[in-house]
TrEMBL record:
Protein family: Belongs to the FMN-dependent alpha-hydroxy acid dehydrogenase family.
InterPro entries: Aldolase_TIM (IPR013785), Alpha-hydoxy_acid_DH_FMN (IPR012133), FMN-dep_DH (IPR000262), FMN_HAD (IPR037396), FMN_hydac_DH_AS (IPR008259)
UniProt-recorded Gene Ontology molecular function terms: FMN binding; oxidoreductase activity, acting on CH-OH group of donors
Keywords from the UniProt entry: Flavoprotein, FMN, Oxidoreductase
Residues binding FMN, per UniProt: 85-87, 114, 134, 162, 243, 265, 298-302, 321-322
CDD domains: alpha_hydroxyacid_oxid_FMN
Cofactor(s) listed in the protein's UniProt record: FMN
Keyword Flavoprotein among record annotations: yes
PANTHER family linked to this entry: 2-HYDROXYACID OXIDASE 1 (PTHR10578:SF107), S -2-HYDROXY-ACID OXIDASE-RELATED (PTHR10578)
Keyword presence, Oxidoreductase: yes
Name used for this protein in its record: Alpha-hydroxy-acid oxidizing protein
Residues holding glyoxylate: Y136, R171, H267, R270
Active site: residue positions: H267 (proton acceptor)
Length: 382
């Protein structure tokens, strides 16, 4: 049950969690997690594109139960879902990443810990979830290598390099709110954060701007290139996932460079405003990769039916971001667990109704989309 001022309420869809989180959070925190960049056109387009993907169910299949279980990068999962990397989760609940990682462990899905987590990677991995570590390209190469080694030593099963943030997008809600981190929340994995505390850039108000944006600009190197990808590949034996691939040419080059998976992502509409919706880019990337590595997708996933749509369009799985954070904000670990349980229930129901016994048959469903909305992949109806 999601908690509210009037008591506990049943969660019937992800929208219930969204509304509960909105009630629970201060407005400036809500804007920080909910907002996109610029006019937020890509933020809206992500949902529009998903809503316009139609599935063609199969009949007379004899399917009585859709089996959602599968694997991601060789690890068994209850459904092809990972909790997306999201920064500073203690903003929305005191337990932050530890609560959400526990929810992921209970749900049997992957938890991707952000480099900008408000708990250390050691503490997060210690929860026992299947944990991947998300990495930004830092100006300090030694610190980058140190974080890679810490992730390995903590038992993380993969590195997720985010490649679409040479700098943060202009997130106007945060700028108008002059958003700063409270003194109790730090980027716990960055060496200066625990000691600097309220003295760090992210805690100092920037008139007319976002302190988090300034802090990120100081820490991240915008000049990330293919040569740097090779530098990372040479320093770890962990599977390497690239997050933020949208162009088929980049996808092909990434496979040639030896990446183990990629995530088609426009960063949930928080980076380039006007970018293609992630699900619109998915088919051409899947076609280009042609089975050489798993392709996941994020941005706008709000239901189990959305997960099924992504699978039908060729994805191996999805990353779920804001919905998990809404559950955390509304009810801590229990709230996040309820969101993930609901996604599983919805996916199983959608697979059954579509005549899909398992994930393999889900990937063979036919999709239909309005002309111009989504590039058709092999087997789809334009």
């Amino acid at each position: 049950m999601i908690s509210s001022a009037s008591g506990s309420r049943a969660l019937f869809d992800i929208g219930d969690a969204e509304r509960a989180a909105f009630r629970a959070l201060p407005r400036h925190v809500w804007d920080f997690i909910d907002g996109g960049s610029g006019s937020e056109s890509t933020l809206r387009a992500n949902r529009t594109a998903l809503d316009q993907v139609c599935l063609t169910p199969r009949a007379l299949t004899g399917v009585t139960h859709g089996d959602c279980a599968g694997e991601l990068l060789g690890s068994p999962v209850s459904m092809p879902v990972a909790v997306a990397p999201m920064a500073y989760q203690r903003l929305v609940h005191p337990d932050g990443e530890l609560a959400l990682a526990r929810a992921a462990r209970s749900a049997g899905v992957v938890f991707i810990a952000s480099m900008l987590s408000s708990r250390t990677i050691e503490a997060i991995a210690g929860v026992g979830a299947e944990t991947w570590f998300q990495l930004y390209w830092l100006r300090d190469r030694d610190r980058t290598e140190e974080l890679i080694k810490r992730a390995e030593a903590s038992g993380c099963r993969a590195l997720v390099l985010t490649v679409d943030v040479p700098r943060m997008g202009r997130r106007l809600r945060d700028m108008r709110n002059a958003f700063t981190l409270p003194n109790t929340v730090t980027a716990a994995n960055l060496p200066e954060s625990p000691a600097a505390g309220p003295g760090s850039t992210a805690h100092r108000e920037q008139p007319g701007g976002s302190a988090v944006m300034v802090h990120t600009a100081e820490a991240l190197d915008p000049a990330l290139s293919w040569a740097d990808l090779e530098w990372i590949r040479d320093r770890t034996g962990l599977p390497l996932v690239l997050k933020g691939i949208m162009d088929p040419a980049d996808a092909s080059r990434a496979v040639d460079a030896g990446v183990d998976a990629m995530v088609v992502s426009n960063h949930g509409g928080r980076q380039l405003d006007g970018a293609l919706p992630s699900v619109t880019a998915l088919s051409s990337v899947v076609r280009e990769v042609s089975g050489r590595c798993p392709v996941l997708v994020d941005s706008g996933i709000r239901s189990g039916t959305d997960v099924l749509k992504a699978l039908a369009l060729g994805a191996s799985g999805v990353l779920v971001g804001r919905p998990a954070l809404w559950g955390l904000a509304a009810g801590g670990r229990d709230g996040a667990s309820e969101v993930l349980h609901l996604l599983h229930t919805e996916l199983e129901q959608a697979m059954t109704l579509a005549g899909c016994a398992d994930l393999s048959s889900a990937g063979r469903l036919t999709t239909t989309v309005p002309a111009g909305v989504l590039a058709a992949r092999t087997g789809t109806t334009p």
